[in-house]
Amino acid sequence: MKRKILAITYLLAILAIVHAEPYEIKLDEFNSISNATPFDIEIRFSDRTYAEINLNEKSESHLKIRIEENRLIIESIKDDWWKFWKKLSLRGTIYIYTQNSKFKFIENIGTGSMNFIDKISSSSLQVNLIGTGSILFSGGGEVFNNNIKVTGTGNVNMEMIQVNIAEAKVLGTGNIKINVIDELKVNIVGTGNVIYKGRPKISSEINGTGRLIST
Known about the structure:
Layout: H1 2-15, E1 23-26, E2 32-36, E3 40-45, E4 50-55, H2 57-60, E5 63-68, E6 71-76, H3 84-89, E7 92-98, E8 105-110, E9 113-116, E10 120-131, E11 134-136, E12 141-152, E13 155-172, E14 175-190, E15 193-197, E16 201-207, E17 211-214
């Protein structure tokens, strides 16, 4: 019994989160964003463009943020962040503030999450999710042409956004939720689902037990 208590105490000590003081990083403007960390990313609109870092002390040493060709890239400095014990100890949220609401490319790789808190607007938007993470557009918005691809077990939720034309592809067990007006093209390989609202013209190809579901 004592050994069990000691083991639990030791585990809790390992997983204890010690937060450093939040700090800001000034950013140039961007129209695309990629996250390849296990952190939660929240994107909001502001009168200036910057990142507010709110992570535990251990997590900060793994973080690298840069902009290349108008894309904000959030990634890990070290290649071994996905190892089990290290992944458990990496915790926190990164708040991204931007003046731009017209995104072109959004990508999440790994176990992290992205949430677009405010309304977005785009003529053409590519959304990629690879892994077990999630992308949520809780602020809603409007996108004319939308291409979404989920590879793995993660989830993309775009049901708050009004989309005119969409192409949704799921490889694995993940899910896509979308609100489409005119046209929806679906490709599912595996057991994942595409869940849609609206009455669009539909074309679909499903290989596996995945489903196209109308709500």
